[in-house]
Write a structure and sequence with these properties.
The protein is α+β, with helices and mostly antiparallel strands. It is built from 9 helices and 22 strands. Strands 1, 2, 5, 6, 7, 8, 9, 10, 11, 12, 13 and 14 form a 12-stranded mixed beta sheet that branches. Strand 18 and strand 19 form a beta hairpin.
Length: 402
């Protein structure tokens, strides 16, 4: 009997050890975050392009679908100047590897960068940037702000949506119920499937937000570097596209309480931002009744220079009052001044306006990634009459507080 017990114990111990040996190894840092040596190994089959060189090499003006049986959406092409606001260039699946790398400058938690991100690369001390359209919800959980990534672009596409360059995939829109549907049916940049993006992407090192480069400047300084109102020609459009996605920190600005209503500047009012007719509400982004176009509120310096602060109606702070605004109106807006940080952009989705060179009202914008208490970073820092002991404290619109 004793012998049988010993044999049983021996078998059980062997079985337990066998199970232990089958237990998966826990992830190590090197399994998730690759080193520079690994980058060199992975990219040995091709080339790592600087972001601007990548656009110059692979993003053509007309793209791959301009002469397709089903071409781009109707509002894409300005035949007068030969400019496409929407384009898609497919990248080869086979052949040498096509790689880009950059550090993520955005965070999708606050809602302004839903299923999208921007990466930054520093070349010769200057920023180069590129938007990425990717079908990932809560992407910042994995791809955090400050994380450098390497992307193998073979099989993907590069194109422009409303003149803004981005890494993407081809997408055909056939929504006959959309607003101005006849202008929107056709090819345009679409979101990269999440699993495809994860398969093509490697994280280099661990996230380091301190390595992001901000261009800190006043509006006057900004408009010495870029044209406030570009003209309809290939040179200006190329400059606009290369400046898109830039991470800026605008100094000495305040919200002046105005918004753009189809090219006309109007004062914000105290209407309910969640109702039809509430588009002028004195909050960051009142409802568009789910049409979904970006909402803009005007920033101004102490002079006459202005820039749009662009936000999504789906942002978590969309219905928060502008700094200095409240249920009584916008009288105190000019008393709250400071800095607004975010992603620079110039959005134009109608070729007809470009064709006629009627670009008044189409201004540069800055899109913040978060405000105090909402988002990974606080991009709006303002004080009452310059008193640092009296910072702007965000307050949400309350329909009961009237």
């Amino acid at each position: 009997m004793k012998t049988s017990k010993y044999i049983l114990y021996s078998v059980l111990c062997t079985f337990v050890l066998f199970l232990a040996s089958c237990e998966p190894r826990g992830l190590q840092q090197e399994d998730v975050f690759i080193s520079e040596d690994k980058v060199a190994e992975l990219t040995a089959d091709g080339q790592v392009y600087n972001l601007n060189d990548f656009l110059d090499q692979f993003m053509t003006e007309e793209g791959s679908f301009h002469s397709d049986t089903c071409p781009y959406r109707d509002r894409s092409y300005d035949a007068t100047h030969g400019i496409y606001l929407y384009s898609v260039d497919t990248l080869p699946v086979n052949g040498p590897g096509i790689y880009i790398r950059g550090r993520i400058t955005t965070d999708d938690y606050a809602g302004n960068f839903y299923k999208s991100m921007v990466i930054q690369q520093i070349v010769g001390g200057q920023q180069q940037n590129l938007r990425i359209s990717v079908d990932l919800g809560s992407s910042a959980g994995m791809y955090q702000i400050g994380q450098e990534i390497l992307i193998r672009c073979n099989g993907l596409a590069v194109g422009r949506y409303a003149n803004q360059p981005q890494l993407c995939v081809p997408s055909y829109n056939n929504n006959i119920y959309a607003m101005n549907a006849s202008q929107k049916v056709g090819w345009c940049p679409g979101r990269i499937q999440g699993s495809v993006f994860r398969g093509a992407t490697r994280m280099i090192g661990t996230p380091d937000i301190s390595k992001l480069q901000y261009d800190e400047l006043t509006l006057t300084e900004l408009y010495t570097q870029i044209k406030k109102q570009p003209t309809a020609n290939a040179t200006d459009m190329d400059a606009v596209r290369k400046m898109d996605g830039r991470l800026v920190r605008l100094k000495d600005v305040h919200f002046n309480g105005k918004y753009d209503d189809n090219g006309t500047l109007k004062n914000c009012d105290t209407t309910n931002p969640d109702t039809i007719g509430g588009g002028g509400a004195n909050v960051f982004a009142p409802s568009t009744q789910n049409i979904g176009y970006p909402q803009s509120r005007l920033l101004q310096d102490q002079g006459s220079s202005t820039i749009m602060c662009s936000n999504s109606e789906y942002a978590k702070f969309a219905y928060f009052y502008l700094p200095g605004a409240d249920k009584t109106g916008i009288a105190q807006c000019s008393n709250f001044e400071g800095t607004v940080t975010g992603i620079l952009g110039w959005y134009l989705d109608k070729a007809e306006t470009l064709k006629k060179n009627e670009l008044t009202g189409y201004e540069w914008s800055v899109t913040p990634r978060g405000i105090p208490g909402i988002g990974a970073v606080n991009d709006i820092v303002m004080y009452y009459q310059g008193d640092e002991s009296a910072p702007w404290v965000p307050k949400e619109y309350d329909p009961k507080d009237r």
